[in-house]
Write a structure and sequence with these properties.
This is Proline--tRNA ligase. This protein is α+β, with helices and mostly antiparallel strands. Helices cover 28% and strands 28% of the residues.
Amino acid sequence: MKQSKLLIPTKKENPSDAEALSHIMMERAGYIYQISAGVWAYLPLAYRVIRKVKGIIQEEMEKAGAYEMETPSMLPADLWRQTGRYEAYGDTLYKFKDHNDREYILGPTDEEAMTEILRDSVKSYKKLPLVVYQITDKFRNEPRPRYGVLRGKEFSMLDAYSFAADEEGLDEAYQAQAKAYHNIFDRAGLHYKVILADSGTIGGDNSQEFSAPAEIGEDVIVYTDGGYAANLEKATAKFDAVQQTAEPGKLEKKATPGAHTVDEACASLGVDQGQMIKSMLYMAKMGEDDYQPVMVLMRGNDEVNETKVENALDCEELELASEEDTVKYLGAHPGSLGPVGVGEDVKILADNYVKVLVNMACGANDDGHHYVNANIDRDFRVDQFGDFRNVQEGEIAPDGYPIKFTNGIEIGHIFKLGTGYSKKLGAQVLDKNGRLVDMIMGCYGIGVTRMLSAVAEQNADENGLVWPDSIAPFDVHVIPVNAKKDEQMAMANELEQQLTAAGYEVLVDDRKERAGVKFADSDLIGIPLRVTVGKKAADGIVEVKIRKTGETLEVKQEELVNTVGILLKQLDKQTSND
């Protein structure tokens, strides 16, 4: 293919609004074009990469016994109301009406539609387990689209769904999908960790996330050298606190003017941070119009893990109480809150580390005042103890190794959904005993366009993109140094024919540009191998450069096809071993 005929609008300067390396290089290299905030066009080079990613997914899905189909992007709002997700997703959904005033959404995911189809199409366990999937565009009204195509309002996604009549069928499908995901990400040249994860608005109890470590990743991966891995919302550490045995002191109220943080209150009271209780008031949505105030007690500067609290409460949403609600329920403002004297209308949760403390300091629900020597049961109640904190680096994980943190990009997620959707939508089959049972579901997703960002983020350098050959837009970039010289162009065309006949995808830079411009653009585009046709063309010799390492070697024209094959195999092997 000739570069002069292909739309590749490369740029010398970095985009002014770009923060991520992948965003900078994909836009500079002419892969993507922003139509509006969070809405991107995928230009020919990017489209070729996406097509290859989709091809890998389709191959591995078929091996795993999953078959492709497609549901509409436009979904009836009433279907989502049946499962409660219309309200749970809230403003994240794109909502609209047709000319008959019927309400619709643009689908961000497709559990409801797939469940309805299976409900009306499968009636017997003999057809199960069954796995279907699609690769389609999804829509989410991201309030802060950023990092190029990593977090956009419209994106391409694989979503697969398994349906089974029993747990054995669910496990069979789940394990097959997990294996497929490993194969997909391995073949795409991604470095990733498989971590324990929270299911969020999708639902279900068991889930694993595939996360690609990257500096701009918005997820925190908690991991150890022993193999433990989880996202921050799910991570736990070994509980190492010892029950304090001091004699309970007298509860005293003290003035702490200007003390609004834990550190300020500790300094004012002269107490250790480990004896200070931080009290956070939340509003938990338990039903459509049912909001419950919940106080969460933490030790010192430990951070509340809102996902753990939400799961413990089994609530639909959890958000920090407004200043108005805080004053309404506790009579004070944040910075002076505490559990002493709190009524039964406020549920109190406390982290396990609070349970072992004696003679704690806490807010007095009176602005500018705190208590000292507050004790559980004598001075305040706790309705529920649990692990409600974020783990910290250096703590010991369940596998006995110290915890480490890194940022990661979520590229895939697999869930055991259970019967949550099938119960609400009436998706049942007759089991082998002739009884109606709810279908047991699994859900499996990969961010296809996210994978481009993740691969680019892990492989790009200061000169541009560096694609693994498995998903690169072309295998070889042939560059005649001077396209005006007939012998160089003639040789470039011969090389294109020879390499194409051998099964390689070739881009020829036939533009009448200076050699420096061509080489800079070649580095930006990131094709694995560059073949330069220059001064030695008359002698039948070309230069081959490996984009990933920068290594170069001179090769005779008649040996080029074999050399390309050897180098690409070596690069594939390096990718799989990295």
